[in-house]
Amino acid sequence: MPSPNLSFQRYLQQHLSLYLYVSVLFIMGVIFGALTVNALSAQQQQSMALYLHSFFEWIAQETDGSDSQSLAALFATHGRWVLIILVLGLSIVGLPLILIIDFLKGVMIGFSIGYLVGQFSWKGLFFAVVSIVPHNLIVIPVILVSSVAAISFSLYLIRCLVVQRQAVQRQQLHSYLIMHMTLCGLLLGAALIQYAVVPHLLEWAAPVMLETMSISTGES
Strand runs (DSSP E) across 33-120, as ranges? Predict the structure, then answer.
C-alpha cells in the first residue's frame, strides 16, 4: 500500500497544471475586479460611500453581535459556491461554468479590495485585511481545490462516457464526494472565523474608517 505522502505527491503531479490554470484564472478575476472600480460613475461612487458610512456606523455601535449573520447563514453562503461546483463537476457541460465561477469569485474579491484601497488608501487596505482576508484564507483555497477536483472529474466523465464508452467507477465518484465533504468541513471553520473573529476586528476598525470618511467629507 503506497504511503500517504507518495499518494499526495502523485496527486499534485497529476493536477499541477490544473491548479496553475485555475489559480491564474482567479488572479485574473481579482485584477479585473480591481480595475472595474475605475469604471464606476461619480453617482455610483457616492452611493457606495453612503452605504459604507452607514455600515461603519452600524459596526461602531454594535456591541453584542445580536444582529450579525448566524453561523449557519455564513456557512451556507460559502458552501453554496462549493455545492454548485460539485454539481457542475458531475456533468460534462458544467466544466466551462466552473471556470467562470472561479473568475467571478476573483472579480468580487478584487472589486471589494480595489474599491477600499482606491477610496481610503492604506486605511482601506487595512480594513480589507481585517474584513475580507481572514475567512477567505480558507474559502479561496477550498474553492480552488473544489474546482480542480470538479474539472478533473468532469474530464474523467468525458474519458469514460464519450471516448472509452465505459461505466463510471463508483470508487471515483465516492472519492469525489468525500473530498467535497471534507472541503465543506473546512468551510465550517471559515464560517466560524467570520462569525466569531471578524466582527470584533470590524468593531476595532470601524471608528478608524469613520474618522477617515469624516475627514474626506470635510475636505470636500
Answer: none
Q: How far apart are CA 190 and CA 76, in angstroms?
A: 11
**Alpha carbon distance 40, 31 (integer Å):** 16
Asked if 97 and 23 touch (Cβ cutoff 8 Å), the reply is no
Domain residue spans of the chain: 17-37+82-213
pLDDT in tens, 129-157: 999 999 999 999 999 999 999 999 999 88
Q: What is the pTM of this model?
A: 0.85
Q: How many C-alpha atoms does 75 have within 13 Å on its Cβ side?
A: 12
pLDDT digits (tens, 9 = 90+) for 24-59: 999 999 999 999 988 888 888 888 878 887 877 777
Query: Can you say whether residue 200 is alpha, beta or left, with left for phi > 0 and alpha for psi between -120 and 50 degrees?
Result: alpha
